[in-house]
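tool_log.txt
---
The assistant was asked to compare two proteins side by side. It first ran the structure predictor on the initial sequence, then on the second. Raw inputs and outputs are pasted verbatim so the downstream comparison step can read them without reformatting.
(1)
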Amino acid sequence: MRLPLLIVCVTTYAFTTLSHAAGIQVGRTRVIYDANKKEVALALTNTEKELPWLIQSWTDNGDGKTRGPFIVTPPLFRLDPQKEQSLRITWSGQALPTDRESLFYMNVRTIPAIEKDNNQKNVLRLIYKTRLKLFWRPEGLKNTPVDACKNLRFSQREGQVFITNDGDYYSVFDTLRISGKSIPHVDMVAPKANATFPLANTANGSKVTWRCITDYGNATAEFTTRLTQK
């Protein structure tokens, strides 16, 4: 009698220099797609010594459902143990804003093989999905992502803190503290936009310190400013 196979899906997010989804190593934590390039490569390595993995990849617009304006090849393939293969990401040609970055997400789903000896056993099979930010970067943007991060403005009104990004790039926080208190639930600020979050009993002039994540997955220098009244 063949016993049932239990399948569990685990989603991981890339934060460090190299992301791991079980036996699959993803070569970066974010994808930067410069508009002047024909394609961008994302390296995957199977670190297993014996078992292959099945790899499925696609992009989405951020809602986890709508496919992004990129073609990923190969969309589905087998990666043998101790082998590396690159995914190739190509823009579909869909019109996108030219005065600021646009954000999408790259998804890499990895499905492990099952050893032949386990065919008749009750097996817990984990399917991993790694999700990375994919930034579409048009030509001719002003300054740099680090400049956008450095020039963020922080203000408050009626228990709300406003973060204003006047730059052309997304600012993704590595750390953010106000009066020494860590603010973990603020992820990023879109270009030419504001992010708002509640923070009661914050005094005008409170010290704000922050770092952003660079294109290479590490942190910028720490920046400091004062909280102003909006």
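(2)
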Amino acid sequence: MTALLRPLFGRQARLRWVHLVLGGALAMPYVLVGTVVVGPVAGSTDGQVFTSLTMQLASFAVGLPLAVATSLFPLTRPLEGAAVRWLCGVPADRLAEGPARGRAAKGRTALWFALHLTSGAVVAGMSLALPPFAAVLIALPFVPAWRDPRLGLPEILGHGWGQALAPAAGVVSLLALAGCAAGAGALLARWAPALLGPSPEERLAAAEARAADLALRNRLARELHDSVGHALSAVTLQASAARRVLGSDQEFVREALAAIEETTRRTVGELDTVLGVLRDGDTPDAAPAPTLAADLDGLLRRTRAAGQPVTATVDAPLKALPPVLSREAYRIVQEGLTNALRHAGAGVTVAVRVVLRDGHLEIGVDNPLAASAATRGGGGHGLDGIRSRSRLLGGTARAGPVDGLWRLRVRLPVPRPSASP
């Protein structure tokens, strides 16, 4: 029995009933405006417009176009969407969030508002009229005074068999009211995604926004990997080298500690920038992303301070490179040195080469192939990050063992400066 009554009186049905009653309440101001027009036109006496069903329907018909017009206000769709989400049980991802934009979206919102107010007015009117009438029918056999014909009850209720069936008729009328409310609520919940949901243009804009956010987060993940990964590798080797010569070479220990301090300070600044973007969605005032022109020498110096010999060949106008290219190229060199620190072995010379040739910036990082280098393969996150950066800039990246060396080769196109008008 409970399972049969749940669709009519369950929590979801009750909430949708409330939603319909709210629609009826929203319709009342427009009906009152309609009575101001219908009453004088029909020549009705005072109060007749409120007692005549025909005039009430006419007043609603006059007020409905005004309701459709007010539905074009920007807040209508967000407010209706919130009501549908909480009272009708429609998932939030199937409803639009902002104001209706465009003729089609505004038309759907207007149609929804008209349906909500119309069905709500009908159900609200039934909810006001039927329960008292049903209560009279149920109590009629037990209250003789209510059988007086002067009360205006139907003639059939004056008969004995009519009075006997009155309680059943009262219960049926209440069930019919609940059924109408549940049916209207279910229909509105079914139509809500089509009328209040996002348009194809809004879905495309939302997808583009999600893609842009995902791309930003992927870029930040690469920044964290390259910056923090290199810093940890460098600091580990610097600390290890300093520990080994702690009692014999105080000057080297001081240089290693200074390099550790500089490396961690720069990395904390970059980390603050990245975490600020992840936390607030905006870039705070923090250390800017390093570039070849600004910090290539510092990067090489800090790597050498870890006890890793590094030779560098730079034949490119670093200060003239576009900022984005210079920043991404710096990260590529940094990741190449990080791989060398991790896999080449202590004391092994690493050769770095940054050359501008044929309109392309060529980056190379070479080191002797240690026994553990075979574990690098081509699937590390660092190498994937280098390839991803290269593709985004329209370039190419190759890495792998060649003639006893681990070689990283990256070739990035350098945009030509636009001609002055």
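---
observation on (2): DSSP finds twelve helices and five strands in the chain. Residues 283-287, 371-379 have pLDDT under 50 and may be disordered.
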